[in-house]
Structures are given as structure tokens and as C-alpha cells.
Amino acid sequence: MSLAIDLRRLRFRYGGGPWVLDIPELTLERGTRAFLFGPSGSGKTTLLGVLAGVLEAEEGEVRVLGEDLASLSGAQRDAFRAEHIGYVFQMFNLIPYLSVLDNIALPARMNAERRARLDGTGVRETATQLADHLQIGDLLKKPVTELSVGQQQRVAACRALIGSPELIVADEPTSSLDFDRREAFLELLFQECERAGATLVFVSHDRTLEGMFSRTISLPDVNKAVL
Amino acid sequence: MLIFDLALKSLRNRAFSTSLTVGSIALSVALLMGVENVRVGMRESFSNTISQTDLIVGTKGGTIQLLLYSVFGMGAPTENVSWEAYREWADHPAVEWTIPYGLGDSHRGFRVIGTNEDFYRHYRYRGGQQIALAEGRANEGLFDVTLGADVAAELNYALGDEIAVTHGLGEVGFINHDHMPFTVTGVLAKTFTPVDRAIYVTLEGMEAIHWEDGAPPASDDEHDHEAEAQAAPSDDGHAHEDEAEAAHDDDHAHDDEAEAAHDEDGHDHDDDGDAHADEAEAAPADDGHAHDDEAEAQAAPADDGHVHAEDISIEDVEVTQVTSFFVGTTNRRDVLQLQREINDFEDEPMMAVIPGVALNEMWQGLAYAETGLRLVAIFVVLVGLLGMLVSLYTSLNERRREMAILRAVGAGPNRIITLLVLESLCLASAGALAGLTLVYALLAVAQPLVEAQAGLFIPIRPPGSVELLFLGAVVLAGFLMGFVPALKAYRTALHDGLAVRV
Ligand SMILES: Nc1ncnc2c1ncn2[C@@H]1O[C@H](COP(=O)(O)OP(=O)(O)OP(=O)(O)O)[C@@H](O)[C@H]1O
Ligand SMILES: [Mg+2]
């Protein structure tokens, strides 16, 4: 039960196309900060989709936080994702018509469990705290369209972290940041993950960041579908 | 509540396309409501034209024709009903009251209707309202006229004005009876019915208009001629021409009288000496000319040698016929029996119709136009809603990112669908509301214009059940149409996974 991720004989493909993922085994301890890398098109984003329960594996077993995703219905998977997983996209993370605060608060408003895990603190307060930690506390009222890319990524991180999900999935969130900012962003992300006791799966091409993580996964090594 | 909030914010974010969509729905809804209001207004003013009358009686012919000429002032019958026959039915024990009408003449395009005080006493419209006078008094004398409200307004006539009546219908009658001026004694209050567009004279006055030779056929020695003239008095030009020729001969006989009459005329006018002093002075001068050119004047039979208003009194005139009459029964249960009796009347070909039945029959005939109008309006609404569907659908592509984010933060298919359906529901409801507001604003502005231009009074009333049904249908259609982009969005979101290509 201490495994955050437990994949067995996973096979996935889009429609009737070629296999994109063919992973005999991949496990991840809870609390791990994992660095996932691989060349473009190797299936990193696809794997995250499977882990988040957005994409459904055609074969094999996918256990996330002890839950067998294949046994869940679509609606249950949606609820599971909302409750347990924080997701950060590579770019364009935010809903353009919501303010910074509303973007951060969205998962907590969407899901009662995440709200319950705020420990009595209000959604706004928690969002404000998180924003302060990631040094965007002064931007809360701003429309998200007026933020720099780095600021947007931090807002997205706050949103992924709110309500302490057990699994944070970040898909190349730093690719548009310069090196110094990348490190600063990661430091903040790690702090918050630690505070929440969350497992982090972090995708990047950038091997220079590898040293900051407790575990490195090379997707081409585990994924047999990649030629 | 969260999703509703999201939907509103998302719509506001796309304010321009949102307002375009709402505007187009509002316009089409306003059109639909407008058509419905005009339709109801037409129908109401149509069936409000006459009320509490149990039967309309005229000569045998088409039901709708009888309704048209006796109630709506359109067309004319070929035959009249004799005074004797009219009296016979008026005195029938089942009959409480009657209103006799003599039709067939006009004044500058407005109908001249001969009737008597029963009209003022018994005529009812719009749920029992009675004819009222706006000014002056009801016509009593032989050459008194009372004007409908529109007639007075459009022709700019005031009390005391003299008007000439044309025999026959239409802008230009067959013979212009300039010699028999009628005097305006009263103007009726507005009714929003064809009454507003008619001119009322006494039955006797009507009869007088019909003297083709301009002379009262009262004197005993001319009795033969009288009979002839009265046999077909409401006839058209054919008969008139013959009679007019006969009248020429008579003109000579009347010359003396006529001259005398002119003299008197002049005096009378002088004596009147009130507001009409100017006219009065002009009038004798004209007459003077006519006298000088006596010989020429005889070529034009209408000009001279006629009898003037002052020469005859109402008692001298015998009413010989009516065109139609309205009947009110003492007991409503007798209506059908009475109708049957009148229809079976052997002395003359007569026909009685029940106004409600005839109105309905006529309205059925107009139902095609009504349905057509409504269909067009409904299609316009459909086009408006389709426009909404198109704009929602095309915006989906730009919103794929948004959908992916929403799914990533845990919005399930239900929430995505709810969001988009709510958006289209909001658009349709806002459109319906705006359309409703627009139509009432337009009605408020257009009501007096339509009334002035088309004589159609469109009542401003709260939306009726049909309108509410339409509004409900628009909102429901918006709701249902929302599912098209919603399902599409959900499928796209699933297919896109979490890696949305921009
Ligand atoms: N929605 C989709 N439909 C069909 N094929 C897809 C879809 N998304 C990805 N693929 C294919 O799956 C493979 C893996 O794509 P994926 O996005 O997971 O790669 P990635 O490792 O994230 O690449 P990158 O580093 O460029 O983001 C690619 O060959 C891609 O063409
Ligand atoms: Mg990717």
C-alpha cells in the first residue's frame, strides 16, 4: 500500500494506432520525487494521462495510490483524479476567464475531498497562503492573461497543490523558464510537496535538473513500445 | 453553482460573440412575439367589432359577404330588404331591438351609412361598449351627419361643416350630389372598429341621396316616377343613367321652384350669420353664376334644378328599404329559431347570420395567412438558435485547452456537459428576455403609429399563454441545442487526453 504508482504489463495506444506505451513494470514509492525523461514523442505525456486516469490502458494493470484505475468507472476516475491528483501542464495551464485566485481555488471548489483536506482553513486563505509560498501573493486579483509565463507556471503549481493531493503530476512545467528560475521553481515545488507529503512525477527533457530528484526514470528504458 | 459561475464568466469573457448571439436570438424572438401580438391584436379588433348582436340580417347571399358589408364596411349587396319586411321582423315577438342600416354611398372614400337612433341605443362593440359622441349631437335631421372619429380626423372636419355625399362607393361616385349638402352635427368617440371610418346619416337622409333627379318623389302627380325610382334606388350606374335622362325632363318643371329655392338659400345663409359667414357670402355668388348660365347648366344635370335641404323636412321622406339590420333577441334561446324563420321567409329572399359564427368562418379563411406569418417567424427563431449553435460549436475549438484543464482539475463529463449546456441555456434565456423587452419597447413606440397608419389597435398586454409557450420553446431549444457542442466537447476532451495541441 505504500506504492504511489504500480504499473504491470501496461499497454496503451490511441485509437487503433501503434502501441505508444508498453511497460512491463514500473513502480514508485510514496513520497518519491521522480524525474521522468525521454525524447519527444516517447510517450511521456501519454503516460501521465494514463496515471491521471484520463486515458484508459488497453491492457495491464494500473494502480495509482493503491487504486486499480481499470476497476473504476469513468465518473469514478474523474472523481479520483479530482480528489488525489494535482496536474501541471507544460504551457497554457490556466483558465483565461478566471482570476489568479479562482484558478488556484478551482480544484478545491470542484471536489469536496480536497476542500475537506484544507483543515478548516477557507479556500481563499489556503490559495493565498500557497500563492505567498510561491511568491505570487501580490498577483491574486490579476487576470491570468496578464501574467508572465513563469508566473503562470507558479499559479498552475499552486492549483495542483491546493487541497494536498497525494500525487502531483507535472508535464514539463519549466521548459519555458531560464535556468535560475527553473531551480527556484523546483525548490518551491519540492517544499510544498514535502509539506503535503505528496509524490511528484516531473517530466522534463532537461537532464541538468535530474540531480534535484530522488529518482530518475528513463521512459525509453521502461517503455518497450519506443523503437 | 460553481459550474454556473464558470458558465457566466466564460460567456462574459467572450462578451462580443455572446452579445451578438443574444442579439440575434432577441431579434428573432421579438419578431415572433411581434407577429403574435399583431395577430392577436388583429383577431381581437376583428371580433371586437361587434358584440351583443344576435343576428345580422340582409338579402340572401354569402354569409361572409353579409358580414363584410354590414360590419366591416367592405363591398355591397346586390339587393336590399324592403322596409315592410324589415318592420315585420323588427316587430317579431322574439326580437327585442333592431338596428337598420342603409348602405351604398360614400363621401371621399368613407362609407355613408343610413341608420337611426337605434344605432346609438343598441350598437355594442368590445364587450358591450356603447357608441359615444366625442362632440356635438347625434344626427337627427334629414341632412345631419355624424362622423366616425377617423373620418373627422382625416378629413379635418368640424361641427357645422357641410359635406357632399356621393352616390355609389369609391373615391369618385357616379353622381356628385353637390346640391344636397349635409351638415356635420356630431363626431363619434374612437372605437377602433370600422365605425370610426363611417359617416352616419338618417335612413331618410339616405333615401334622399338616392333621388336621382334631386327631387323628393313626394308629390302625388309624380307618383309613377317615384315608384320607378324607388324600385331600384341603390342600383348602380345603369339604372341611374336612364333615370338621369328622365330627370332632365323634370328639371324644366322644377326650374321655377329651384330658382326660388336658391333665393331662399341665400337668405337663410345670411340669417345664419355665425361661423359660416364667409361661406355664406360666397355661396350666393356661386349661385348667381349658375343662374346666369342657366342654359349651359342644363347640360349638366347635377348642377341646378335641384331641391335644397331647406325644402324638405324629415317627415316628408318615406323610407322604403334597408340594406341590412342587426337583431337583438329578448331571449338568446330564440336565436336559432329566429334565424331559421328569417332564412325561410317567403316574401323576400332574406338571410340571417349569427355574428360569432360568421366571424369565425371568416377568420378561418384568414388562417392561412396567419399560419404562414407564424411559420416564417418560427423559422426566423430557428435560424437565430442555429446561429447560437454555430457560434458555440466553433468556439469549442478555441476552448479545447480550457476543457482539458477542467478535466485535469477533476471536472467529469457531466460537469463539462453541464457547463456548455448552461452556457447555451443562458444565451437562449437572455435572448428570449431581451427579445421580450424589445418587443414591448417596440410595441410601445409602434402602437400609436400602427393605429394611425393601419387603423389597427394592438393592445399592450402581459404575454399570453401562446407567447409564454414560444418563450419556453426557445429556452428549451437552447437547452437541447447545448448538448450538441457539449457532447462534442466531451469527446474531444477525452480524445485530446491531457496533451492539447494548440
Ligand atoms: N491524441 C492523440 N491521438 C493520437 N496519437 C497521439 C495523441 N497524443 C499523442 N499521440 C502520439 O503518441 C505518441 C506519444 O506522444 P506524447 O505526447 O505522449 O509524447 P511526449 O513524450 O509527451 O512528447 P513531447 O516531449 O514532445 O511532449 C506520439 O507518437 C504522438 O504522436
Ligand atoms: Mg509531452
The helical percent of chain A reads 25-40%
Q: CATH homologous superfamily of chain A?
A: P-loop containing nucleotide triphosphate hydrolases
The overall strand count of chain B is: 16
Strand order of the largest sheet of chain A: 6-7-8-3-9
Helix/strand class of chain B: alpha+beta
Which strand-content bin applies to the residues of chain A?
15-25%
Task: Quote the distance from N terminus to C terminus of chain A.
Answer: 33 Å
- How many alpha or pi helices of chain A? 8
Give short descriptive properties of this protein.
heterodimer, A: 227 residues, alpha/beta, Rossmann fold, five-stranded parallel β-sheet, four-stranded antiparallel β-sheet, 8 helices, 9 strands, globular, B: 502 residues, alpha+beta, 3 domains, ten-stranded mixed β-sheet, two-stranded antiparallel ribbon, 14% strand, elongated, binds adenosine-5'-triphosphate, binds magnesium ion
Overview of this structure, please?
- The complex is a heterodimer of chains A (227) and B (502).
- Helices cover 36% and strands 23% of the residues of chain A.
- In chain A, helix 3 (100-110) runs parallel beside helix 6 (149-161) and helix 6 (149-161) packs parallel to helix 7 (179-196).
- Chain A has a single domain, classed as Rossmann fold.
- In chain A, the strands form 2 sheets. Chain A has a 5-stranded parallel sheet with strand order 6-7-8-3-9, sandwiched between helices. A 4-stranded antiparallel sheet of chain A has the order 2-1-4-5, covered by helices on one side.
- Chain A has helices at residues 44-51, 74-84, 100-110, 112-116, 123-133, 149-161, 179-196, 219-222, and strands spanning 3-13, 19-29, 33-37, 59-64, 67-68, 85-88, 167-171, 199-203, 215-218.
- Chain A is built from 8 helices and 9 strands.
- In chain A, strand 1 and strand 2 (19-29) form a beta hairpin.
- The mean pLDDT of chain A is 86.
- Chain A has 227 residues and is α/β, with parallel strands linked by helices.
- Chain B is α+β, with helices and mostly antiparallel strands and 502 residues long.
- Chain B folds into 3 domains: 2-47 and 366-495, no CATH class; 55-216 and 307-353, no CATH class; 226-299, no CATH class.
- Chain B contains 16 helices and 16 strands.
- Chain B has helices at residues 2-13, 15-47, 63-71, 83-90, 117-122, 149-155, 203-209, 223-231, 237-272, 277-292, 294-297, 335-343, 355-398, 400-408, 413-454, 465-496; strands at 55-59, 81-82, 95-107, 110-115, 124-125, 129-130, 133-136, 144-147, 162-163, 166-167, 175-176, 182-188, 198-202, 321-322, 324-329, 350-353.
- In chain B, strands 1, 3, 4, 7, 8, 9, 12, 13, 15 and 16 form a 10-stranded mixed sheet that branches. A two-stranded antiparallel sheet of chain B has the order 2-14.
- Chain B is elongated.
- Chain B starts with a helix and ends in a 6-residue tail after the last helix.
- The A-B interface holds A 45-46, 48-49, 52, 54-55, 74-75, 78-79, 81-83, 85, 87, 89, 91-98, 106-107, 109-111, 159, 171 and B 2, 6, 9-10, 12-13, 401-402, 404-415, 494, 497-500, 502.
- Magnesium ion (MG) binds next to helix 1 of chain A.
